[in-house]
Design brief:
Length: 499
C-alpha cells in the first residue's frame, strides 16, 4: 500500500461558515460535517480571496490573488499558462480528477485535471447558451427577486449536486474495487465541486419545513437609515434591499439552512462510500467553500461585501494518524494557504509564484511549526453588478485582516475599520476614530503594497474590450461545451408562488 496520502477535496459554493453546527449554529443539522470536524481540525478565521465565485475559485486553483492572475470578475478567464493545484498534483504523480463545479470560464475546462465528470451547470463560454429557469429566473442573485421567490420547492442546482454526489460515490466504489484487487494501487486525488448552498433560496420541503417554523431573524439587522457607507447604501438600492419584509427574510433563511443541511447529507453519502471501500485510513479530507452569504446580517444578502459572513469560509481538515482530532485553529488563514497546504501534504511541488503558506505545521507534527503571520487579503474589483452611481458601475475594493483588525479599502471612498476582538459583530466602524488613525494608515499602506487600483482599472477596461469580441464570437460560432451538465427548466419550481 502506498504511503502517499489520498486526497478528497470537497468545495461548496456560498457556504457561510456560521451556518454549520461545528461553527456554533444551534438550528442547522450538519451531523456529517460536525463528525468530520471532530475527527480533525476546524479553522475559525479563513478568508476567501474574493467574495464572488470565479475570482475566488481561480485564486484557490492557481494559488494567486486576483491581482496576480488577473481574474477579477465572473467573466474573466484564467490564463492556461498559469500552473494550478491540479498541475502540481499531476507533477507529483497523482491523477487529479474533478467531479462537478469548477466554474472556469473559457476553452480550458481542465486547468491541469486529468479527468472531469458531471461538469458545470452553465456554459463554458462567456455569452454561451443559457437555459430558462422559469419561476426561478434571476433568483441566483444579486437581486430582490431571489428573496421574493424563495421557500419550498426545487432548484436545478440541487439536482446538479445530487448528480455530483452520485458520481462521486460511484467513483469511490470503483476505486474500492481496484483497491481490493490491487492493494498497491496508486493514491487518488479527487476534487468535488458542489453548487449548494448557492441561491436560489429554494429547498425541497423535507429540508425547508423544519426551519420554516424555527428560523430566527438576523442577529445584526441594519436599517437603510442606519447605513452610512456610500457604497453599501448604493448597493442596497441597486439590488432592491432597502427594506425586506420579515416574511421574505424568514423564508429565504429557512431555505438556506435547508440547503446547508442537504449539502451535509451529500457529504455524508460521500464519506460513507469512502469508509465502505476502506479508503479512509490514509485520506486527507478537506471541506471548504468559495465565499459565504450575508443572510440578512447588516441588512445585506448574497456575497460581494467584506463582512465576516460573506468573506469568511468554513475549513475542516481531517487526516487520520497525521492531524490529531478535536483541534480548533484561531490563526488567520487565506484560501491561498489552503492550496499550499494541500500540496505540502501530498509532497507535491509548491506553486512557484504563489504567496500561499502551508499551515500543516500548525495542526500536525508532520511538518515543523511555521512562524505564522496572522494576515489575509481579499479583493473585489468589478465592472458588473455595480450601481451606476458608483464610478459609472465600477468599483475597486480590497480587504486586509491582520491580527485583530480588519480594514476595507474602497477606492475613492472612505474605508471601514473594525476591531474584531472588541467588536466581533462589526457594528462599530473605527475608520474615523482619532485613536485608530495609526492602525488605519498602517493597514492602508499594506493594502496598497503591490495592489494598484488605477492599474487594475486599466487592465479591467482592456479585458472588457477583449471580452466583447469573445462574447460576439461565442454567439456566432456557438462552440460546444466540453464539460457541462444538462440543466432543464422544469427542474426549477416553487411549492407556492409567494408573489
Amino acid at each position: 500500500m502506498s504511503t502517499k496520502p489520498n486526497l478528497l477535496f470537497i468545495h461548496t459554493d456560498q457556504h457561510n461558515p456560521y451556518v454549520t453546527g461545528c461553527y456554533g449554529d444551534p438550528l442547522v443539522q450538519t451531523p456529517n460535517l460536525d463528525r468530520l470536524a471532530a475527527s480533525g481540525a476546524v479553522f475559525d478565521n479563513v478568508y476567501c480571496c474574493s467574495p464572488i465565485c470565479v475570482p475566488s475559485r481561480m485564486s484557490m486553483l492557481s494559488g494567486r490573488h486576483p491581482y496576480q492572475n488577473e481574474v477579477w470578475t465572473n467573466s474573466h478567464m484564467l490564463d492556461s499558462g498559469i500552473p494550478t493545484l491540479a498541475h502540481a498534483m499531476g507533477a507529483a504523480g497523482y491523477h487529479p480528477a474533478m467531479i462537478g463545479r469548477m466554474h472556469s470560464v473559457g476553452p480550458d475546462q481542465l486547468h491541469g485535471y486529468a479527468e472531469r465528470l458531471v461538469g458545470d451547470h452553465g456554459s463554458n463560454f462567456v455569452g454561451g447558451r443559457d437555459v430558462g429557469r422559469g419561476i426561478l429566473a434571476g433568483t441566483a442573485g444579486p437581486d430582490r427577486v431571489s428573496l421574493a421567490r424563495s421557500g419550498a420547492g426545487q432548484s436545478a442546482y440541487q439536482v446538479h449536486d445530487e448528480y455530483v454526489a452520485a458520481a462521486t460515490v460511484d467513483y469511490l466504489n470503483q476505486l474500492g474495487v481496484q483497491h481490493r484487487a490491487d492493494r498497491a494501487l496508486a493514491p487518488f486525488s479527487l476534487s468535488v465541486g458542489f453548487m449548494l448552498p448557492h441561491p436560489p433560496y429554494v429547498a425541497r420541503s423535507e429540508d425547508y419545513e423544519p426551519y420554516a417554523t424555527s428560523m430566527t431573524l438576523p442577529a445584526k439587522p441594519r436599517t437603510f437609515d442606519q447605513e452610512n457607507h456610500p457604497f453599501l447604501r448604493a448597493w442596497r438600492e441597486h439590488t432592491g434591499i432597502v427594506t425586506v419584509s420579515d416574511a421574505e427574510i424568514v423564508r429565504s433563511r429557512a431555505a438556506y439552512w435547508g440547503l446547508v443541511q442537504r449539502v451535509d447529507i451529500m457529504v455524508g453519502q460521500i464519506m460513507q462510500a469512502l469508509h465502505d471501500n476502506q479508503l479512509a485510513e490514509n485520506t486527507l479530507i478537506v471541506y471548504t467553500s468559495d465565499h459565504g452569504d450575508m443572510q440578512g446580517e447588516h441588512g445585506l444578502w448574497w456575497k460581494h461585501v467584506f463582512y465576516e459572513e460573506s468573506v469568511k469560509v468554513p475549513l475542516i481538515v481531517s487526516w487520520p494518524g497525521t492531524i490529531p482530532a478535536g483541534q480548533r485553529c484561531q490563526r488567520v488563514v487565506s484560501a491561498l494557504d489552503v492550496t499550499a497546504t494541500l500540496l505540502d501534504a501530498l509532497n507535491a511541488p509548491a506553486l512557484p509564484n504563489s504567496p500561499g503558506r502551508s499551515f500543516l505545521g500548525l495542526i500536525s507534527d508532520a511538518r515543523p511549526a511555521p512562524n505564522w503571520d496572522d494576515v489575509a487579503f481579499s479583493e473585489y474589483c468589478a465592472d458588473e453588478y455595480v450601481p451606476q452611481s458608483i464610478d459609472a458601475g465600477r468599483t475597486y475594493q480590497r480587504m486586509i485582516r491582520q491580527g485583530d483588525w480588519k480594514l476595507i479599502y474602497y477606492h475613492g471612498m472612505e474605508p471601514q475599520l473594525f476591531n474584531l476582538a472588541a467588536d466581533p459583530g462589526e457594528r462599530i466602524d473605527r475608520a474615523g476614530d482619532p485613536d485608530c488613525q495609526s492602525i488605519r494608515e498602517q493597514l492602508t499602506t499594506r493594502v496598497l503594497d503591490e495592489w494598484n487600483p488605477e492599474a487594475i482599472a486599466a487592465k479591467m477596461a482592456a479585458k472588457q474590450a477583449d471580452g466583447s469580441i469573445i462574447q460576439k464570437w461565442t454567439s456566432q460560432i456557438k462552440p460546444p461545451d466540453q464539460h457541462r451538465w444538462t440543466m432543464r427548466q422544469e427542474m426549477n419550481w416553487l411549492d407556492e408562488h409567494p408573489l
